[in-house]
Amino acid sequence: MLTLAPDIDVLVRFGRALADPIRCRILLALREAPAYPADLADTIGVSRTRLSNHLACLRDCGLVVTVPDGRRTRYELTDERLGHALDDLRTAVVAVEADRTCPDAEDKGCC
Fold it and tell me: Model's pTM, two decimal places?
């Protein structure tokens, strides 16, 4: 019998990362280019503390890595294929149902 547990775990982890708009914005920004936390916070418009919490989540999910750069730390996607996956996912969802929106997280149902 074929087991899909590892594949499902990976997709769940990716889905959790994408479930938050701030994490989505971080991933999309890093898709464009590696960045330093202070620059990401300014670009995304969140506090550095809040950004740090989201970056920790993305690191724990294995989607971003830190790269030492002198006394600073730069963030980048773990693999360039993640950027391609984000593009493919975004365009596929738009192509299928461009006029749909997901209900708020407070709603019982979700897409």
Answer: 0.79
